[in-house]
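Q: A reviewer asked whether we had any structural model of the full assembly, not just the individual parts. We don't, so I'm hoping you can provide one. Inputs are below.
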Amino acid sequence: MLNRDLVIIGGGSAGMAAAVKAHELGVKDILILEKNNYLGGILNQCIHNGFGLHEFKEELTGPEFMTRFSDQVNALGIEYRLNSNVINVSNDKVVTYSNKEEGVVEVKAKAIILTAGCYERNAGAIQIAGDRPSGIYTAGQAQLYLNCYGYLVGKKVFILGSGDIGLIMARRMTLEGAKVLGVAELMPYSAGLNRNIVQCLQDFNIPLYLSHTVKEVKGKKHLEKVVIAKVDDHMKFIPGTEMEFDVDTLLLSVGLIPNVDLFNELPLSFSKTRGAKVNQAMETEIPGIFSAGNVLHVHDLVDYVVSEAKEAAIGAKLYLDGKLTHKGHKYDVIPGNGVGYVVPQVVYIDDASDSISFKFRVAHPFKDVNIYIKDGETVLKKIFKPAIIPSEMEIVNIPKANFTRETNTISVYVEEKK
Amino acid sequence: MIRELICITCPRGCHLKVDENLNVTGNFCPRGAAYAKAELTHPVRTLTSTVVIKSNLDNRVPVKSNNPLPKELIAKAMEEINKVRLSAPVHIGDVAIKNIFDTGVDIVVTKNVLE
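A: Here is a predicted structure for the entire assembly that you could use as a starting point for your response.
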């Protein structure tokens, strides 16, 4: 059996950022395990720009961003294995992986960071009514085919779901000569960033149908038609609102789910994000096992993935030094009115370094509201928001010294106007 | 008349208001003001795409315009990009098309493909 101080599962942006940060902090005995034949994860197919404005203070494409990190991993001599699939993670931190050269290998880790990313909800997950023709893809699949293999999956396209990948693909397929007939979004607001509505849809006059979803797909062998219809407040179809589109392709951009399969056998509980519950150090309920990036909760920006991965690396370093005691004052973090989720779910205030970052999303859009972060009845932070939407994650840092240690609850909530 | 825009410079997506004298409010940073002025006078966009590459690893290598292009040139630029044929090795920053349509903008490679 191999032994390593730190094993990082997944060599995408989160895994590489965690490795580089841990190395900087003095953890040198690191192994990154990556299932693909390159380091960089999903950024390899995200050829559009807009990455890195926080991390590098410049606007990069996905491949450029991932290369910044893979160059650092290589320059620091951090060990990694490509084409290596992790099969199991045990309670006592034995990681089992396999690849062609080594066969099945066990590594005993002192600490583990899971940075396995997320996966797309697919056609099966949303149970579309109608035929079962070919021509239905997730947006990320179509993106991989087009950007990495040079294969345009269709010429007449409809997109279900207004997630960012779907919006990005609407533009990308239009530029490559496809006709994108529209985007339907079940909710009355977009799931994607506002900037992508502007530069991916409005720039190309692609209509966005809010409160609409696909009612039926038709096609004997290949997709021929999609029928969409409007839904009411209870998500029921409104009769007479049907619209039919002649298409050969339906792209699905209907949500991303943390890829926590490796955690399923472990005695862990999970939060509303579908990622593992973590404390202020991004540590799960098993001491020494950490989680960060899209496997913890789905982020809008890779820059935020990177900063969270660095928090996990700092946590791993503290753990390896015996400084994550789980003693002293403990808070539970509770999402209140109007808040969908908050990460972390637990704070051991005495284990924290100088400040604690709370990441959260609202449950639905609000205008002109105050958001409170409270320690019992003490206001730790009050933020005014002229407009806030679920697709934009908020990050608030609060200095350790500001916590009262008199209560056991941190609440985050939206105060609505009366 | 006040025009309302959403800034696309970064993912923050500020809600901008611009008056007839091109005074911009609602921007978090100076780039928002510059974006609003350009958008209402001569809009530009950074273009990203891929070009064909001969390589043992990939069929396509990603490229971008190293500066924003006038919006009306985007479709024509795609035609030029689709004519390019590269061979590995290529590196980030290698020029695929020099000074496209005399704009002073280059189309450059955004990924290392080494073999």
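A: Points you may want to mention in the reply: The CA atoms of residues 134 and 232 of chain A lie 30 Å apart. Chain A touches chain B through 30 residues (CB under 8 Å).
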